[in-house]
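Quick one:
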Amino acid sequence: MLSNTLNSSRLLQGFVPVVACLLFFVTPRCEAQNLVVNGSFEEIDSCPQYPALLGYQLGARPTGWFSAWLTPDYFNACVDTVSSVPLNLFSYQPAEDGQAYSGFFSFLVEDGRELIASELEQPLEVGQTYYCSFWVNAAAGDYFVLRAGSNNVGLLFTMSADPWTYSPWTPDFEIRNFAQVHSAEVITDTVAWTLVSGSFVADSAYRYVVVGNQFNNENTEVELFDTGNPNVAYVFVDNICVSTNPLGCPLATGYVDGQQRPFRIGPNPCSEQLNIELLEPMRKLRVLDVTGRRVLEQEITSRNKMTVDLSEQPNGVYLIQFEGNGVRYSEHIVVEH
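Output:
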């Protein structure tokens, strides 16, 4: 979050190439090494005390991560304050997985940005293709009248760390109008997490990854999704992945249209009991409502058929998720009593 000592003019005034919504595809995951340290932000030495998580302060930020520009934020369910998960100062948003994520402004006046960075497990190899992905959610909170999404949030790989400090004041991070992987589309989904993914061939032995909007305001699109301030956009990010294996990260391009999903569900719409037939082993099941809140989560012990009781859930549209051996599947269901 921006420090109060910053010039107020920078507080008011969004993400560019493969984007796919969580709700509509299959995302392959495997056991290949993720070169991003603590990419899901779950690891932290100890749960900080309020308000330490706001601002990526020393001792109150996820292990392996630091601020590359200004004061991004860290959110974790271990605290019950404005920096908690799922409810916090900026929005109500469950983590894409686990109980933590990071957040930052992707668009502000005068090309203001917040950026986070981490040293990779090992330097990239020149000439090697790398497959990358991360999940993004547009925050929709009242504190900053957050009602806008931006494009261009992405991953920039660099040779040097360039950590940002308040004292002494670190110069502004160089905006390059470039990132090896970034979102071409404006992301305005405030409920589901959106997957951004892509690949590139390393032209240098990059050692660090910087996450955020690397494009200036002139080259960034901003879109209001409700009445609000078009000069400020804030996003959450989670599960950042970089791998040499094309199946090492959940890539949007990994979905094959018409692919048969390894489960059958019904009836849909459902009034009480949802019947599930598994065509291959799955390990976890989740049901989320339209706000992204998990209304049900359980480990799967059955190897073929099971039922889920939805009789206590209000009428509406829900998302049911299955996780298998390195794969996640999603399907919409409708509850009508």
